[in-house]
Amino acid sequence: MTSNRSESFRIQALQLTDALLVWLAFWLSWSLRDWVRISLGWGVEQVDLMDSINWLLYIAVPFTPLVLERFGFYDHFRTKSAGRAVVELIQGLIIIALMVSLYSIFAKLIDLRRLVMGIGFVLVFFLLFLRDRVTIRWFKRQILENFAKERVVLAGSASETVGLLEELDPELRAGWHIVEHFDIQTCPVEDLFELLKRESISRVIFAAKETGFDKVARAVEACELQGVEAWIAASFIRTQIARPVFDSLGSKPMLVLRSTPELSWELLCKGILDRVGASCVIFCTLPLWIIAAIGIRLKSPGAPIMFSQMRAGRYGKPFKMWKFRTMVANAEDLLQKIKEEHGNQMDGPVFKLDNDPRIFPFGALLRKLSIDELPQLINVAMGDMSLVGPRPLPLYEVEAFSDLSHRRRLSVKPGITCLWQIRGRNQITSFDDWVALDLRYIDNWSLWLDITILVQTIPAVLFGKGAK
């Protein structure tokens, strides 16, 4: 089965994990050799063997995943049986053992310790088998749980979408939650736009050979405006923002129009940076959390310490965002009255007001120092947000978007900081300018850009730049 880019990326990640497990197995083998010798009554060998097995690691670590791939160990990793995994592992490890033995003979490496090598290969087998079973179980759980599946719309005539599904491998389809078969011939494109917004769709797959080019182009534009990937089994279509690349679903070639960062090692590192960075910052700032909690309790008694609100996440999917409460307990109820009495300093759907009367004095201090934002690190650790990304907006503000292109800022995970924060957020009063900065971030994203924004955020927070 031909793998698409996402599948290839997963296989590469599994191979890298397996290479690390091979190294771990032989390191454990070297560490356990004395204990094994004592258990067998052979006595302790007064020789440091680590240098003598380094060459073994040079062979086993990189070549084991490659040989296992040749035997199909990374194929069908959603549904593979335990028996098949055992057979493939044994076949691959026999080849690696032969490679090691032949190299030791021809290189005349007489210091090879058979005990270390034997224990090492046994540990390699069990560690890789355990990793394989854990991976299979995780994918099976993803298949069973609709909320964890990718939300997909199939667009085309009824016969075309059914035909496409019949041509695809069932294992590939298992990771999808097909929300709707959208008949692009009979339904207006406006209905597709509302469907994408309502159902938080991440990908639309077009099987539109019988559909007019102009209608497909307008449907692709609906996807483009919301930052939703469009996968097209058709000829090239010109776009203004989305980057066209060729990919495949099983053996079927597809043209992908993507206006968001493509799956890559950089994107994987961003995810790791988010989780690890958020956890470290939470640990290092615990005293501030305690001070904030005590201060809120003393200065605004009888109300919760935390404020939570449903915000729009990636593709508009709602999630509960947390902050330290800086306003009076009934702040949401007073919003309309505040708008009528004081107006709005930000044009567009977003509400901003300097010296908002709903903010109590200690809350103003928390905002000035950006301490009120710290609980959002929990959202980052949970995967709903990123350290860097467009700020998440309340659902009612997203619903009020007047320009459809503004929804493209929802095509990536929302973040705690972004270009808007480091450019002096309270000096920007135009929502269009705010969105322009977010779209510039999306269109030019790189891991280095994230790191740069994080570094620039530190002085912005310390000196209270733009925070009120």
Overall spatial form: globular
| Overall radius of gyration | 28 Å
Biggest beta-sheet profile = 6 strands, mixed
Number of domains: 3
- Our estimate of the beta-strand percent is 5-15%
**Overall average residue pLDDT:** 83
Unreliable stretches covering 5 or more consecutive residues? none
Strand order of the largest sheet: 2-1-3-4-6-5
Give the SSE map.
Blueprint: H1 5-39, H2 54-70, H3 82-106, H4 114-144, E1 150-156, H5 158-167, H6 170-173, E2 176-182, H7 189-199, E3 203-207, H8 213-226, E4 229-232, E5 243-249, E6 252-258, H9 265-284, H10 286-299, E7 306-312, E8 318-324, H11 331-342, H12 361-368, H13 376-382, E9 386-388, H14 395-399, E10 415-417, H15 419-422, H16 431-443, H17 447-462
Parallel strand pairs: 1-2, 1-3, 3-4, 9-10
Antiparallel strand pairs: 4-6, 5-6, 7-8
Characteristic terms for this protein:
3 domains; alpha/beta; 468 residues; 17 helices; Rossmann fold
Can you describe what's shown?
The chain is of the alpha/beta class and 468 residues long. It folds into 3 domains: 140 residues, no CATH class; 112 residues, Rossmann fold; 198 residues, no CATH class. The protein is 53% helix and 12% strand. It has 17 helices and 10 strands. The strands form 3 sheets. Strands 2-1-3-4-6-5 form a 6-stranded mixed beta sheet. A two-stranded antiparallel ribbon has the order 7-8. The chain has a two-stranded parallel ribbon with strand order 9-10. β7 and β8 form a beta hairpin. α1 packs across α2. The longest helix is centred in the N-terminal third of the chain and has 35 residues. It is globular, with a radius of gyration of 28 Å. It starts with a helix and ends in a 6-residue tail after the last helix. The relative contact order is 0.07. The model has no long low-confidence stretch (mean pLDDT 83).
